[in-house]
Each structure stands twice: as structure tokens, then as C-alpha cells.
Amino acid sequence: MPRHCLTLDLKDDATAIAEYKRYHLKIWPEVRDSLHAAGVEDMEIYLLGTRMFMIMDVNESFSLSAKAAADAANAKVQEWEAIMGGFQQPLPQSRPGQRWVVMERVFKLADQ
After folding, report:
1. What is the spatial distance between Cα 77 and Cα 34, in angstroms, rounded to a whole number?
2. Which of 26, 40, 76, 94 sits at 20 to 30 Å (Cα–Cα) from 32?
3. Burial of 64 by CB count in 10 Å (0-12 exposed, 13-18 middle, 19+ buried)?
4. Is the separation of the CB atoms in 26 and 80 below 8 Å?
């Protein structure tokens, strides 16, 4: 199963980080459904300080660009993204308007 790993920072604000975590206790059904519809089989987000790390396990039909296009056409996902954007801050490596940045895998034990 393909896997995508991405990273992003949250703003350095303990109250905002707590609120971000609260939103993720139970994401909106429309957001969950959009993930499944795009081919995301599972997703986990980890946090250390302000740095987040997301792992997405996806099916063979998944495309990051197709997911972005579907999100742009989904008003509820756009509302969610606007709220989440208030908690997030782009990484120095981010392109203008980009939040989550795809990470490069540098090691896999199974390949050894």
C-alpha cells in the first residue's frame, strides 16, 4: 500500500495547539468522507512541540493533486482547512500557499 509522509508546523501557542488537538478528536464527517473518497485508507498525525508529522496510507488510485482539486471544490473541507490554517504556519521550504510538505524517505529497514 502506498504511503505519503508530510510535515507542517503549528503556531507556537499552547492554547491554539490544544484547540487544534481538540478538533482532531473527532474530525468532521465531511472531512473524513473526503479522505476516504480520495483513496486514503488510514491517516495518523503526530506532534512534537510545534512540528507535526502525517502518515497517509493510500490505495493505488490516490493522487495528491486529485485530492487537492477535490478539496478545492468541497465547501465543507474548505471551511475545515480555513480553521486549521489559523493554527498552522508554513515551513521555510513551503511554496506560497502550501502548508503540508511532502517528506523524503531516507531509510527503510525492509530494503536492507
Report:
1. 8
2. 94
3. middle
4. no
How many structural domains compose the chain? 1
The amino acid present at 98, given as its one-letter code, is: Q
Cell 474548505 locates to: 78
For position 26, which CATH number holds? 3.30.70.1090
Using the 8-state DSSP alphabet, how is residue 55 labeled?
A: E
User: In Å, how far from its chain's centre is CA 36?
Assistant: 14
Whole-number pLDDT of residue 5: 98
pLDDT in tens, 19-29: 999 999 999 99
pLDDT tens string 39-70: 999 999 999 999 999 999 999 999 999 999 99
Q: Which residues pair with 53 in a beta bridge?
A: 7, 46
